[in-house]
Queue: 2 jobs
Job 1
Amino acid sequence: MMLKSVVCYFAHPDDETVLAGGIINLLVKQGVHVHLVCATRGEGGELGEPPVVARQELLGAVRERELRCAANALGASVTVLDYVDPVVGPDEVLYPFDADFDTLAKQFGDIARRRAADVILTHGADGEYGHPAHQLVHRAALHGVRAQSPKTLIYTVAALVPTIEDKLWNTNEPAHLALDIRPWAEAKIAAMECHVSQHALFKRRKRLKTVREALRTTESVRRQWPETHGEQPDDAFATLLRDAGAWSP
Ligand SMILES: [Zn+2]
Protein backbone atom coordinates (compact mmCIF):
# COMPACT_ATOMS: atom_id res chain seq x y z
CA MET A 1 0.00 0.00 0.00
CA MET A 2 1.21 3.48 -0.85
CA LEU A 3 0.45 6.10 1.78
CA LYS A 4 -1.65 8.91 0.38
CA SER A 5 -3.47 10.56 3.25
CA VAL A 6 -2.56 11.18 6.89
CA VAL A 7 -4.77 13.12 9.29
CA CYS A 8 -3.37 14.51 12.56
CA TYR A 9 -5.56 15.42 15.54
CA PHE A 10 -4.22 17.81 18.15
CA ALA A 11 -5.71 19.97 20.90
CA HIS A 12 -3.90 23.30 20.47
CA PRO A 13 -1.90 25.23 17.88
CA ASP A 14 1.81 24.32 18.30
CA ASP A 15 1.15 20.67 19.36
CA GLU A 16 1.51 19.62 15.69
CA THR A 17 4.93 21.24 15.43
CA VAL A 18 6.36 20.35 18.83
CA LEU A 19 5.16 16.73 18.81
CA ALA A 20 5.32 15.74 15.14
CA GLY A 21 6.69 18.57 12.97
CA GLY A 22 9.58 16.50 11.61
CA ILE A 23 7.45 13.45 10.78
CA ILE A 24 4.79 15.64 9.17
CA ASN A 25 7.37 17.29 6.91
CA LEU A 26 8.92 13.90 6.06
CA LEU A 27 5.48 12.61 5.00
CA VAL A 28 4.83 15.71 2.90
CA LYS A 29 8.22 15.37 1.19
CA GLN A 30 7.32 11.74 0.40
CA GLY A 31 4.21 12.97 -1.43
CA VAL A 32 1.69 12.17 1.33
CA HIS A 33 -1.15 14.65 1.89
CA VAL A 34 -1.12 15.60 5.58
CA HIS A 35 -4.15 17.31 7.09
CA LEU A 36 -4.04 18.83 10.57
CA VAL A 37 -7.16 18.99 12.73
CA CYS A 38 -6.82 21.32 15.69
CA ALA A 39 -9.65 21.14 18.23
CA THR A 40 -9.19 24.66 19.67
CA ARG A 41 -7.45 27.94 18.86
CA GLY A 42 -5.41 27.74 22.07
CA GLU A 43 -7.16 30.90 23.20
CA GLY A 44 -6.55 30.10 26.87
CA GLY A 45 -2.77 30.10 26.48
CA GLU A 46 -0.10 32.65 27.28
CA LEU A 47 -0.16 36.06 25.63
CA GLY A 48 3.59 35.98 24.92
CA GLU A 49 6.60 37.92 26.22
CA PRO A 50 6.31 40.66 25.16
CA PRO A 51 2.57 40.08 24.71
CA VAL A 52 1.49 39.53 21.08
CA VAL A 53 -2.03 40.71 21.95
CA ALA A 54 -3.35 43.14 24.54
CA ARG A 55 -6.25 41.03 25.71
CA GLN A 56 -6.87 37.30 26.17
CA GLU A 57 -9.94 37.34 23.90
CA LEU A 58 -7.77 38.33 20.93
CA LEU A 59 -5.37 35.41 21.34
CA GLY A 60 -7.43 32.77 19.50
CA ALA A 61 -7.34 34.63 16.18
CA VAL A 62 -3.59 35.19 16.50
CA ARG A 63 -2.88 31.55 17.32
CA GLU A 64 -5.04 30.36 14.44
CA ARG A 65 -2.86 32.48 12.12
CA GLU A 66 0.25 31.06 13.77
CA LEU A 67 -1.07 27.54 13.19
CA ARG A 68 -1.79 28.27 9.50
CA CYS A 69 1.73 29.68 9.15
CA ALA A 70 3.19 26.53 10.76
CA ALA A 71 1.07 24.21 8.60
CA ASN A 72 2.32 26.07 5.53
CA ALA A 73 5.92 25.71 6.70
CA LEU A 74 5.42 21.95 7.20
CA GLY A 75 3.44 21.53 3.96
CA ALA A 76 0.14 20.42 5.55
CA SER A 77 -3.46 21.65 5.26
CA VAL A 78 -5.55 22.56 8.34
CA THR A 79 -9.04 22.42 9.83
CA VAL A 80 -9.59 24.37 13.05
CA LEU A 81 -12.61 23.25 15.07
CA ASP A 82 -14.50 25.69 17.26
CA TYR A 83 -13.89 24.24 20.70
CA VAL A 84 -12.71 26.77 23.26
CA ASP A 85 -9.47 26.29 25.18
CA PRO A 86 -10.07 27.44 28.79
CA VAL A 87 -7.62 29.86 30.37
CA VAL A 88 -4.90 28.08 32.40
CA GLY A 89 -5.96 28.09 36.06
CA PRO A 90 -4.09 29.26 39.15
CA ASP A 91 -0.87 27.32 39.82
CA GLU A 92 -0.76 26.32 36.12
CA VAL A 93 -3.69 23.93 36.46
CA LEU A 94 -4.63 22.71 32.96
CA TYR A 95 -8.15 21.98 31.77
CA PRO A 96 -9.70 20.04 28.89
CA PHE A 97 -12.02 21.95 26.58
CA ASP A 98 -15.76 21.63 26.90
CA ALA A 99 -17.10 19.09 24.40
CA ASP A 100 -19.72 16.41 24.10
CA PHE A 101 -17.55 13.31 23.74
CA ASP A 102 -19.70 11.51 21.15
CA THR A 103 -20.03 14.64 19.01
CA LEU A 104 -16.28 15.23 19.09
CA ALA A 105 -15.52 11.58 18.27
CA LYS A 106 -17.98 11.66 15.37
CA GLN A 107 -16.44 14.88 14.03
CA PHE A 108 -12.99 13.31 14.15
CA GLY A 109 -14.19 10.08 12.56
CA ASP A 110 -16.01 11.95 9.77
CA ILE A 111 -12.84 13.81 8.81
CA ALA A 112 -10.79 10.57 8.65
CA ARG A 113 -13.45 8.89 6.50
CA ARG A 114 -13.94 11.85 4.14
CA ARG A 115 -10.19 12.19 3.65
CA ALA A 116 -9.72 8.43 3.23
CA ALA A 117 -7.01 8.58 5.88
CA ASP A 118 -4.53 5.70 5.64
CA VAL A 119 -3.08 6.72 9.01
CA ILE A 120 -4.02 9.08 11.79
CA LEU A 121 -1.59 10.58 14.27
CA THR A 122 -2.76 11.97 17.60
CA HIS A 123 -1.82 12.63 21.22
CA GLY A 124 -0.82 9.79 23.54
CA ALA A 125 -3.14 8.44 26.23
CA ASP A 126 -1.21 10.27 28.96
CA GLY A 127 -1.59 13.56 27.09
CA GLU A 128 2.22 13.86 27.00
CA TYR A 129 2.79 15.88 30.18
CA GLY A 130 -0.68 14.94 31.47
CA HIS A 131 -2.63 17.66 29.64
CA PRO A 132 -6.32 16.79 29.96
CA ALA A 133 -7.16 18.40 26.58
CA HIS A 134 -4.57 16.18 24.89
CA GLN A 135 -6.05 13.14 26.68
CA LEU A 136 -9.55 14.09 25.49
CA VAL A 137 -8.39 14.42 21.85
CA HIS A 138 -6.61 11.04 22.13
CA ARG A 139 -9.72 9.25 23.39
CA ALA A 140 -12.10 10.91 20.92
CA ALA A 141 -9.80 10.32 17.93
CA LEU A 142 -9.35 6.62 18.75
CA HIS A 143 -13.05 6.14 19.36
CA GLY A 144 -14.32 8.11 16.35
CA VAL A 145 -11.82 6.84 13.81
CA ARG A 146 -12.20 3.19 14.82
CA ALA A 147 -15.98 3.54 14.53
CA GLN A 148 -16.12 5.33 11.19
CA SER A 149 -12.92 4.44 9.41
CA PRO A 150 -11.90 1.05 10.82
CA LYS A 151 -9.17 0.35 8.26
CA THR A 152 -7.27 3.52 9.16
CA LEU A 153 -4.09 2.86 11.16
CA ILE A 154 -3.96 4.77 14.44
CA TYR A 155 -0.60 5.98 15.71
CA THR A 156 0.15 8.21 18.70
CA VAL A 157 3.05 10.63 19.11
CA ALA A 158 5.65 11.20 21.83
CA ALA A 159 5.84 7.50 22.65
CA LEU A 160 8.45 6.59 25.25
CA VAL A 161 12.05 6.28 24.05
CA PRO A 162 13.79 5.12 27.25
CA THR A 163 17.31 6.08 26.12
CA ILE A 164 16.38 9.73 25.51
CA GLU A 165 15.25 12.10 28.21
CA ASP A 166 12.16 14.15 27.32
CA LYS A 167 9.40 15.14 29.70
CA LEU A 168 6.86 14.96 26.87
CA TRP A 169 7.10 11.17 26.53
CA ASN A 170 3.94 9.23 27.27
CA THR A 171 5.66 6.95 29.77
CA ASN A 172 3.07 4.16 29.58
CA GLU A 173 3.34 3.91 25.79
CA PRO A 174 6.70 2.53 24.60
CA ALA A 175 7.62 3.73 21.13
CA HIS A 176 7.44 1.33 18.21
CA LEU A 177 9.52 3.70 16.10
CA ALA A 178 11.76 6.66 16.85
CA LEU A 179 13.22 8.98 14.23
CA ASP A 180 16.06 11.48 14.24
CA ILE A 181 14.23 14.30 12.46
CA ARG A 182 17.26 16.52 11.80
CA PRO A 183 17.00 16.05 7.99
CA TRP A 184 13.58 17.81 8.26
CA ALA A 185 14.65 20.27 10.96
CA GLU A 186 14.54 23.41 8.84
CA ALA A 187 10.80 23.00 8.19
CA LYS A 188 10.16 22.20 11.85
CA ILE A 189 12.14 25.24 13.01
CA ALA A 190 10.29 27.42 10.48
CA ALA A 191 7.02 26.12 11.95
CA MET A 192 8.27 26.82 15.49
CA GLU A 193 9.12 30.35 14.39
CA CYS A 194 5.48 30.83 13.33
CA HIS A 195 4.19 30.22 16.88
CA VAL A 196 5.39 33.63 18.10
CA SER A 197 2.99 33.81 21.05
CA GLN A 198 4.51 30.58 22.43
CA HIS A 199 8.19 31.44 21.98
CA ALA A 200 8.65 32.53 25.59
CA LEU A 201 7.17 29.19 26.69
CA PHE A 202 9.39 27.17 24.31
CA LYS A 203 12.51 28.91 25.60
CA ARG A 204 11.57 29.08 29.27
CA ARG A 205 11.12 25.32 29.55
CA LYS A 206 14.81 24.80 28.85
CA ARG A 207 16.16 28.28 29.62
CA LEU A 208 17.20 28.83 26.04
CA LYS A 209 17.96 31.97 24.08
CA THR A 210 16.62 30.98 20.66
CA VAL A 211 13.70 29.01 19.31
CA ARG A 212 16.10 26.90 17.25
CA GLU A 213 17.74 25.60 20.45
CA ALA A 214 14.33 24.32 21.62
CA LEU A 215 14.13 21.89 18.69
CA ARG A 216 13.37 18.32 19.72
CA THR A 217 15.41 16.16 17.37
CA THR A 218 13.81 12.80 18.19
CA GLU A 219 10.16 12.13 17.39
CA SER A 220 8.50 8.81 18.10
CA VAL A 221 5.26 6.95 17.52
CA ARG A 222 3.35 3.95 18.78
CA ARG A 223 0.75 2.03 16.78
CA GLN A 224 -2.48 1.79 18.76
CA TRP A 225 -4.75 0.26 16.13
CA PRO A 226 -4.79 -2.41 14.98
CA GLU A 227 -3.04 -3.70 18.08
CA THR A 228 0.37 -5.16 17.39
CA HIS A 229 0.24 -7.79 20.19
CA GLY A 230 3.82 -7.19 21.18
CA GLU A 231 5.15 -7.34 17.61
CA GLN A 232 6.70 -4.48 15.70
CA PRO A 233 4.23 -2.81 13.32
CA ASP A 234 4.55 -3.88 9.70
CA ASP A 235 2.57 -1.43 7.59
CA ALA A 236 3.13 1.30 5.01
CA PHE A 237 3.68 4.04 7.60
CA ALA A 238 6.19 1.95 9.59
CA THR A 239 8.00 1.13 6.34
CA LEU A 240 8.16 4.79 5.33
CA LEU A 241 9.58 5.73 8.73
CA ARG A 242 12.13 2.89 8.67
CA ASP A 243 13.22 3.88 5.17
CA ALA A 244 13.78 7.39 6.57
CA GLY A 245 16.04 6.01 9.30
CA ALA A 246 13.63 5.22 12.15
CA TRP A 247 14.65 2.59 14.68
CA SER A 248 12.75 0.48 17.21
CA PRO A 249 13.84 1.61 20.69
ZN1 LIG B 1 -1.40 21.25 23.57
Job 2
Amino acid sequence: MKTKLMLSGVALLLGTGYGTAVLAQAKPEVLVKQRQSAMTLIGKYFGPIAGMPSGKAPYNADTVARNAGYLDVLVKMPWDGFTENTKDEKTRALPAVFTDTAKFKEGGDRLQSMVAQLAKVSKGGDEAAVKAAIADVGKTCAGCHENFRAK
Ligand code: HEC
Protein backbone atom coordinates (compact mmCIF):
# COMPACT_ATOMS: atom_id res chain seq x y z
CA MET A 1 0.00 0.00 0.00
CA LYS A 2 2.77 2.38 1.00
CA THR A 3 4.81 1.37 -2.06
CA LYS A 4 1.85 1.96 -4.31
CA LEU A 5 1.36 5.44 -2.89
CA MET A 6 5.06 6.25 -3.28
CA LEU A 7 5.11 5.02 -6.84
CA SER A 8 2.16 7.15 -7.81
CA GLY A 9 3.94 10.11 -6.20
CA VAL A 10 7.01 9.47 -8.34
CA ALA A 11 4.84 9.06 -11.42
CA LEU A 12 3.20 12.39 -10.64
CA LEU A 13 6.58 14.13 -10.29
CA LEU A 14 7.92 12.64 -13.52
CA GLY A 15 4.64 13.37 -15.25
CA THR A 16 4.97 17.08 -14.57
CA GLY A 17 8.60 17.15 -15.69
CA TYR A 18 9.53 18.39 -12.24
CA GLY A 19 11.12 15.10 -11.16
CA THR A 20 13.48 14.97 -14.12
CA ALA A 21 14.49 18.62 -13.73
CA VAL A 22 15.47 18.03 -10.10
CA LEU A 23 17.35 14.83 -10.91
CA ALA A 24 19.29 16.55 -13.71
CA GLN A 25 20.62 19.34 -11.44
CA ALA A 26 24.26 18.40 -10.80
CA LYS A 27 25.92 19.45 -7.55
CA PRO A 28 28.27 22.48 -7.82
CA GLU A 29 31.35 20.49 -6.77
CA VAL A 30 30.58 17.87 -9.41
CA LEU A 31 30.24 20.51 -12.13
CA VAL A 32 33.58 22.01 -11.06
CA LYS A 33 35.29 18.64 -11.17
CA GLN A 34 33.87 17.92 -14.61
CA ARG A 35 34.83 21.28 -16.17
CA GLN A 36 38.34 21.05 -14.70
CA SER A 37 38.65 17.49 -16.04
CA ALA A 38 37.69 18.72 -19.51
CA MET A 39 40.29 21.53 -19.28
CA THR A 40 42.89 19.04 -18.04
CA LEU A 41 42.32 16.85 -21.11
CA ILE A 42 42.39 19.90 -23.37
CA GLY A 43 45.80 20.65 -21.83
CA LYS A 44 46.89 17.06 -22.33
CA TYR A 45 46.19 17.09 -26.07
CA PHE A 46 47.17 20.68 -26.80
CA GLY A 47 50.42 20.56 -24.80
CA PRO A 48 52.40 18.32 -27.19
CA ILE A 49 51.52 20.43 -30.25
CA ALA A 50 51.65 23.89 -28.64
CA GLY A 51 55.42 24.19 -29.15
CA MET A 52 55.43 23.17 -32.82
CA PRO A 53 54.95 26.64 -34.37
CA SER A 54 58.01 28.01 -32.55
CA GLY A 55 60.08 24.86 -33.16
CA LYS A 56 60.25 24.03 -29.44
CA ALA A 57 58.61 20.73 -30.31
CA PRO A 58 59.43 18.90 -33.57
CA TYR A 59 56.65 19.15 -36.15
CA ASN A 60 54.68 15.94 -36.53
CA ALA A 61 51.64 16.08 -38.82
CA ASP A 62 50.15 12.81 -37.55
CA THR A 63 50.25 13.94 -33.92
CA VAL A 64 48.63 17.25 -34.86
CA ALA A 65 45.84 15.53 -36.83
CA ARG A 66 45.11 13.06 -34.04
CA ASN A 67 45.20 15.61 -31.22
CA ALA A 68 43.19 18.18 -33.19
CA GLY A 69 40.47 15.55 -33.68
CA TYR A 70 40.30 14.90 -29.92
CA LEU A 71 40.40 18.63 -29.13
CA ASP A 72 37.57 19.34 -31.55
CA VAL A 73 35.26 17.38 -29.23
CA LEU A 74 36.88 18.28 -25.88
CA VAL A 75 36.57 22.05 -26.39
CA LYS A 76 32.78 21.70 -26.45
CA MET A 77 32.71 20.27 -22.92
CA PRO A 78 33.82 22.71 -20.18
CA TRP A 79 31.30 25.51 -20.71
CA ASP A 80 28.08 24.11 -19.23
CA GLY A 81 30.02 23.53 -16.00
CA PHE A 82 30.49 27.26 -15.36
CA THR A 83 27.05 27.74 -13.87
CA GLU A 84 25.98 30.45 -11.42
CA ASN A 85 25.64 27.91 -8.56
CA THR A 86 29.40 27.16 -8.78
CA LYS A 87 30.56 30.73 -8.20
CA ASP A 88 31.29 30.25 -4.49
CA GLU A 89 33.32 27.05 -4.97
CA LYS A 90 37.05 27.37 -4.40
CA THR A 91 38.43 27.20 -7.95
CA ARG A 92 40.67 29.18 -10.29
CA ALA A 93 37.70 30.64 -12.15
CA LEU A 94 37.76 34.39 -11.49
CA PRO A 95 34.51 36.18 -10.51
CA ALA A 96 34.45 37.74 -14.01
CA VAL A 97 33.36 34.34 -15.39
CA PHE A 98 30.00 34.92 -13.70
CA THR A 99 29.71 38.69 -14.23
CA ASP A 100 31.18 39.20 -17.72
CA THR A 101 29.35 36.16 -19.10
CA ALA A 102 29.09 37.47 -22.68
CA LYS A 103 32.85 37.91 -22.98
CA PHE A 104 33.50 34.54 -21.37
CA LYS A 105 31.10 32.86 -23.81
CA GLU A 106 32.81 34.66 -26.68
CA GLY A 107 36.12 33.14 -25.57
CA GLY A 108 34.62 29.67 -25.44
CA ASP A 109 33.03 30.10 -28.87
CA ARG A 110 36.28 31.44 -30.26
CA LEU A 111 38.19 28.42 -28.95
CA GLN A 112 35.71 26.08 -30.64
CA SER A 113 36.04 27.82 -34.01
CA MET A 114 39.86 28.04 -33.79
CA VAL A 115 40.12 24.33 -32.96
CA ALA A 116 37.65 23.44 -35.75
CA GLN A 117 39.90 25.38 -38.12
CA LEU A 118 42.97 23.52 -36.82
CA ALA A 119 41.22 20.15 -37.23
CA LYS A 120 40.35 21.10 -40.81
CA VAL A 121 43.82 22.29 -41.92
CA SER A 122 45.55 19.42 -40.07
CA LYS A 123 44.16 17.10 -42.75
CA GLY A 124 45.50 19.23 -45.60
CA GLY A 125 49.28 18.78 -45.40
CA ASP A 126 50.13 22.51 -45.46
CA GLU A 127 52.64 22.79 -42.61
CA ALA A 128 52.65 26.60 -42.48
CA ALA A 129 48.83 26.72 -42.29
CA VAL A 130 48.81 24.06 -39.56
CA LYS A 131 51.40 25.94 -37.50
CA ALA A 132 49.46 29.20 -37.88
CA ALA A 133 46.27 27.45 -36.72
CA ILE A 134 48.07 25.95 -33.67
CA ALA A 135 49.35 29.42 -32.76
CA ASP A 136 45.82 30.86 -33.05
CA VAL A 137 44.50 28.23 -30.65
CA GLY A 138 47.33 28.97 -28.19
CA LYS A 139 46.52 32.68 -28.24
CA THR A 140 42.86 31.88 -27.52
CA CYS A 141 43.77 29.78 -24.46
CA ALA A 142 46.09 32.47 -23.14
CA GLY A 143 43.65 35.31 -23.85
CA CYS A 144 40.89 33.71 -21.82
CA HIS A 145 43.13 32.58 -18.96
CA GLU A 146 44.50 36.14 -18.72
CA ASN A 147 41.02 37.53 -18.03
CA PHE A 148 39.17 34.65 -16.42
CA ARG A 149 41.58 32.29 -14.63
CA ALA A 150 43.48 32.98 -11.41
CA LYS A 151 47.25 32.55 -11.68
C1 HEC B 1 36.89 30.98 -22.51
C2 HEC B 1 37.88 30.79 -21.51
C3 HEC B 1 38.91 29.70 -21.60
C4 HEC B 1 39.55 29.22 -22.72
C5 HEC B 1 39.40 29.66 -24.16
C6 HEC B 1 40.47 28.20 -22.25
N1 HEC B 1 40.39 28.06 -20.89
FE1 HEC B 1 41.46 26.77 -19.74
N2 HEC B 1 40.50 27.45 -18.07
C7 HEC B 1 39.57 28.47 -18.03
C8 HEC B 1 39.13 28.68 -16.68
C9 HEC B 1 38.13 29.72 -16.20
C10 HEC B 1 39.82 27.74 -15.87
C11 HEC B 1 39.69 27.52 -14.37
C12 HEC B 1 38.58 26.49 -14.12
C13 HEC B 1 38.34 26.12 -12.67
O1 HEC B 1 39.27 26.24 -11.83
O2 HEC B 1 37.24 25.68 -12.35
C14 HEC B 1 40.68 27.00 -16.80
C15 HEC B 1 41.52 25.96 -16.40
C16 HEC B 1 42.41 25.30 -17.23
C17 HEC B 1 43.33 24.26 -16.79
C18 HEC B 1 43.49 23.75 -15.36
C19 HEC B 1 42.45 22.67 -15.08
C20 HEC B 1 42.39 22.24 -13.62
O3 HEC B 1 42.32 21.04 -13.38
O4 HEC B 1 42.38 23.10 -12.75
C21 HEC B 1 44.03 23.85 -17.91
C22 HEC B 1 45.11 22.77 -17.98
C23 HEC B 1 43.53 24.63 -19.03
N3 HEC B 1 42.55 25.50 -18.60
C24 HEC B 1 43.99 24.50 -20.32
C25 HEC B 1 43.48 25.21 -21.42
C26 HEC B 1 44.01 25.11 -22.78
C27 HEC B 1 45.19 24.26 -23.21
C28 HEC B 1 43.23 25.93 -23.56
C29 HEC B 1 43.31 26.17 -25.03
C30 HEC B 1 43.44 25.04 -25.91
C31 HEC B 1 42.24 26.56 -22.66
N4 HEC B 1 42.43 26.10 -21.39
C32 HEC B 1 41.30 27.46 -23.09
C33 HEC B 1 39.11 29.19 -19.12
C34 HEC B 1 39.47 28.98 -20.45
